[in-house]
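Researcher: If convenient, please comment on what follows.
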Amino acid sequence: GCARCAPARNRSGGACPEHDARRVAARFGAGGPRRLSDEDVARFLVQGYLVLPPDPSIPKSHHDKIFNRCVDLKIEQRGHNPGNNILALVPGIRDVMESPVVDGALRSVLGDGYRIHGHRHCHTTKPGSGNQTWHRDAYASGYQRRQHRPRWAMIMYYPQDVTLDMGPTAVIAGSQYLGTQGHRDLIASARITKARCDRIGGLRGVGPAPGPPSTFGAKRPVTVSAGSCILIHFDIWHRGTQNVSRDKKRYMFKLQAVRIHEPLASKPSWNNISKDLPSLSNILESHGKLEVPPLLPVWQAMWRWMRGSNDARNTNGIRNGNRNGNGNSGNCSTTHDASNGKYEETKSPKPSQPSLATLLTQLSADLDTKRHPCVGTHECVGVLPFTVPPHEEPPPLSPLSKEVPGIVSAYRLSESLESVKALAEVILAKSQEDQSYAAHGSRRAVYGLAAAEASIVMRSNLPELLAKSAVSSDTCAPAREHCCFVLGEWAQALARETKMATIAVDALTKALSVEEKCSLVRIAAAEALGSIGSVLSSLAASATITDEAKSKASCDSGDLLEIIRKSLDAVVKLEMDNPPSAACPQLLQFAVASLIRLGSHARGSVELLAKAAAVAPDRYARVAALEGLKMLGETELLASQLMWERMCTLTAVDHGY
């Protein structure tokens, strides 16, 4: 009978999204989720992480119990780490994750209705352990495009104080948008086995990944008090440092969270007041000088997207291609002084802006155009040859120290119709040989194209062009994947016009079908359908439009949502029936994850979700299916499955499971 539950149940078709927060509040006497402020969100977008203090509603004794439980389990010893079963063995972690501070931060960054991914791990450093290599975590899917937009995040929870001598986690502030090295990043960071690598493309001879250059940002060890968490952008560069203490163990629980709903302008997910990105001077100077890469256009694009508004900009335009003809779309600008690392806000635009030709040159100027293109069916950025003769070392990577101008150029190119069309030309090379991503800067171009404002997208023919190219045999597989990705990133704009949404959905369902032979194109199509379906579902349920408009929108959205649901259903059924030799676990994961993003419109797939939760060959697809049953309020099916899947938490770790 809760007045807040009823509308939430109508939107999601299941449980109230506030339920878990209220459960913890009842147990610890806490309030609701404590959402972040504008400055908090801006700081997260700029530096890539936030330190969350211990939630005052949870007593320190709770964290002490978790620490002592880890000691009893001997997690730091080889063979004793329970991996994904850590929550079953240390259930107190759930209270931390659902506490107002942590839940509020995740809601602020990922939106209401986010889900906790099935992968989690307890990382330990004991006295004498050394430094990890700098890395970015691999996605549990085994392959996924790095995301500039905050769609995935990680929580690192520390049940004990972490001092500098205990091996704290170190991060490179602001590095989450940099270092998109393609295969080397994929192979080295994920430690993917040769067999899996063969399945997804056929890379050979890849050595360890190099450390990121100094231009990626300041390297910072993060010390915290017991009960603190670090919220980090999934793609930030980080590492565990050496433990030089005499007798102090450091435990860190890593959990992943995933966005379900696309942002909507009607309701930003944090305590949002400002339309524009807050003052960078306050963000970067308030706690001492923070050295981050100067990526102002990227931060502004992330801010607009999270607010659900991709039109109004406060940036400098492109000469010979800006919207208002004077090279500026606002009254002020922010400049970066490389000599002192400071950002200064001025009341007048820069005297001159780079031309379209200059930005296109900067897009890929630092990359080696002589590298061989990918010969597999997956995406690459052209930084490595893909056949390395036996007994030969792979050639060194192209330098990444100049990557900042390339990324900035990509986002600056998203500011006008002329430059957006130029970005589209970059990603639509017509042959595999021409699609040398190092030569064309396609990877960066995709991020810039995704950031194009809605008004530009909708008055161009680009949605139709990308939709056609996504299913054309004349387009190489990497470019088809790019097209699917961009269509998904344009979900906020496309879903608001039935014609455009229909064009995109028709193309993506074809790209998802078995007629498409490249599994990574199909994965990109599944993810894009989930994004568009999420917006369609939210718009259909929106109470901010008139009854007549709502009825029409619901009808149009319902038809498209049913097409999306049936397309994803077909993939889930096929992948569960496929023999292991023909199955693609990554595609199954993405199809199930996208299916549950449809909200109440996924109700027609309840039986399939129940089957996937029981017998899906991929463990993370099972977890996503269980999450879907929970969201749809199918408590009986959920409880029945959990009875079979439950784990005996009292079984000794050293006796196995």
Q: What stands out?
A: Strands lie at 49-52, 115-125, 152-157, 169-172, 219-221, 229-233, 238-240, 250-258, 333-337, 342-346. The radius of gyration is 24 Å. DSSP finds 27 helices and ten strands in the chain. The longest strand covers residues 115-125.
